[in-house]
Amino acid sequence: MQTLIQFTIDVLSLGGAYALMALGLVIVYGILKLVNFAYGELIMVTGYGLFLVNGSGLPWIVMAAIAVCIAIATGIATDYVAFRPVRSKSVTAVLITSFAFSTILQNAALLFISPRPRNVPLPDFFSQTVEFAGVIVPARNLITIVASILLLVVFAWAMKKTVLGIAMRAAATQFRMARMLGVPANLIISSAFAISGFFAGVVALLWIGRIGSVTPGIGMEPLLVAFIATVIGGMRSLQGAVLGGFLLAFVNTGLNYTLPQQLLEFRDAFTFTLVILILLWRPDGLIRGPATGQRT
């Protein structure tokens, strides 16, 4: 029973972080039908934001809020720098500019900060453990579960009940028709990038809280995780992104618990094999989103 509780907490904790990552990626894809390959660098800039404000004397929660705001601003800048100037051109041009913007951010961190890992300030509760139902678990896991569930509930409510959420859903379904009906296209797209940056900022706090440091390449793994989760769940579905995130966490955690020690280094190979099998069965992902119009 204790093993089951431990397994459940691990899946919910990892799955919550994965789901938020996937949402940040798919909310932009849902409108533009383009993958933002600079998304991982939003994790990086959040971490370096925390590093740079360290020693300011501000409470940690204020420093964390500043770091998340930096991620939001960078997300909006991604739209203005990498997407908006070329999004009426070819898909290839947008993909190249997003890769270029990602490389620029990484090299800026290498040049102006350091190629070596930098410790970031973290509150004491990130390193503490608590006893839950007779199981000793890291407090950061419980924090991740609570934060992710709260954000997912608020996001689901906002998408259904607010004007911005309804407009974004309309743009994701039929972008051209939404523009003809008066939905401000650029505002909706910038809002999508801002929300994506917010999710990336929150995920960065939870992700870096596990390792305690930031490097220029820290965003690569979250980007890969988000992409795999959205492919599994469905690139056009917000619900699919959440489902894909939790399913990927279930698979990874299950392999950690069941594989012999000598096979753990091949965990990613088993994971990708399962992803391939899922896509052979459901090429569009587990949840198919609505039929979509053109992105221009």
General description of the model:
The structure is a single chain. It is built from eleven helices and four strands, in the order ααααβββααααβααα. It is mainly alpha-helical. It has a single domain, classed as Orthogonal Bundle (ABC transporter involved in vitamin B12 uptake, BtuC). Strands 1-4 form a two-stranded antiparallel sheet. The N and C termini lie far apart (53 Å). The model is unreliable at 291-296 (pLDDT under 50).
Short description:
The protein is mainly alpha-helical. It has helices spanning 2-32, 40-53, 60-83, 91-112, 139-161, 163-173, 175-180, 185-211, 220-233, 238-258, 267-281; strands at residues 118-119, 129-132, 135-138, 213-214.
Q: At the third CATH level, what is the topology name?
A: ABC transporter involved in vitamin B12 uptake, BtuC
Structural class, by secondary structure, is mainly alpha
Give the CA-based shape. Answer: globular
Number of domains: 1
Helical amount: over 70%
Distance between the termini: 53 Å
Please state the CA-atom Rg, rounded to the nearest Å. 19 Å
Let me know the largest β-sheet.
Answer: 2 strands, antiparallel
Number of strands: 4
Proportion of residues in β-strands: under 5%
Number of helices: 11
CATH class: Mainly Alpha
What letter string, H or E per element, gives the SSE order? Answer: HHHHEEEHHHHEHHH
Mean pLDDT across all amino acids: 85
Provide the CATH architecture: Orthogonal Bundle
- Going across the biggest sheet, name each strand in turn: 1-4
pLDDT < 50 stretches: 291-296
